[in-house]
Design brief:
The chain is mainly β. 0% of the residues lie in helices and 39% in strands. The chain is globular, with a radius of gyration of 17 Å. The N terminus is likely disordered. Belongs to the LOR family.
Length: 165
C-alpha cells in the first residue's frame, strides 16, 4: 500500500506501524471509506450486500442454502470470490475458518475466528491468523452489536482500533 505522505521519523516521536495487509492490498486505502451493510430479509439464502455511500455494490456475501456445512463466500462487485468462510461443526465457541477464494484447502487458510466466550450479550470474537497455531493470544479482537449497528476491530488484546463499522 502506498501512502501519498510518509512522515519522517523524529527522535521524539516513534513512527506508527504500517498497516498489515491480510487479504490483499487492493482492499486497503490510506483513508477511511464509508460502507453500508444491507441484509436481505425475505430470501431463502443468507445474503448481504456491502455498498459505498453512492449505493454502488462493493462486496456481496453469498450464504449456503440447504447444505450440511454452513459456509459463506465474500465476492467483489464483479462476482469474483475473495474469501470462503466455513463454520466448523461441533465446536463450543462457534468457530469459523476463512480461506482464499473458494478454496477450503488448509494451505489457503487465512484466519480462524471464534466467540471469545460461550455466553455473550454483545458479539466478541477472537481472530487468529493462519500462522498463529498456538492461539494463546488473538491477532485481532472484534467487538460489536447488530442492535447498535456498530463493530470495532482491535489489534490483538489492545485498545488500538484498526477498523470500525
Amino acid at each position: 500500500m502506498a501512502y501519498p505522505y510518509q512522515p519522517q521519523p523524529s527522535s521524539s516521536a516513534p513512527m506508527p506501524p504500517l498497516p498489515t495487509t491480510i487479504i490483499g492490498p487492493q482492499y486497503c486505502t490510506p483513508y477511511p471509506v464509508e460502507l453500508a451493510v444491507v441484509k436481505k430479509v425475505m430470501t431463502i439464502a443468507d445474503n448481504l450486500t456491502v455498498t459505498d455511500v453512492n449505493g454502488n455494490i462493493v462486496f456481496k456475501v453469498k450464504g449456503s442454502v440447504f447444505t450440511i456445512r454452513d459456509h459463506r463466500v465474500l465476492v467483489d462487485a464483479a462476482g469474483n470470490p475473495i474469501i470462503t468462510l466455513r463454520r466448523k461443526i461441533l465446536t463450543m465457541h462457534d468457530r469459523w475458518e476463512a480461506y482464499r477464494g473458494q478454496s477450503t484447502n488448509a494451505k489457503d487458510l487465512i484466519f480462524t475466528l471464534k466467540r471469545s466466550s460461550l455466553m455473550q450479550f454483545k458479539t466478541k470474537l477472537d481472530v487468529f491468523l493462519a500462522g498463529n497455531t498456538k492461539e494463546d493470544v488473538c491477532d485481532f479482537k472484534v467487538k460489536g452489536s447488530w442492535f447498535e449497528r456498530s463493530c470495532s476491530v482491535y489489534a490483538g488484546e489492545s485498545n488500538n482500533i484498526v477498523a470500525q463499522v
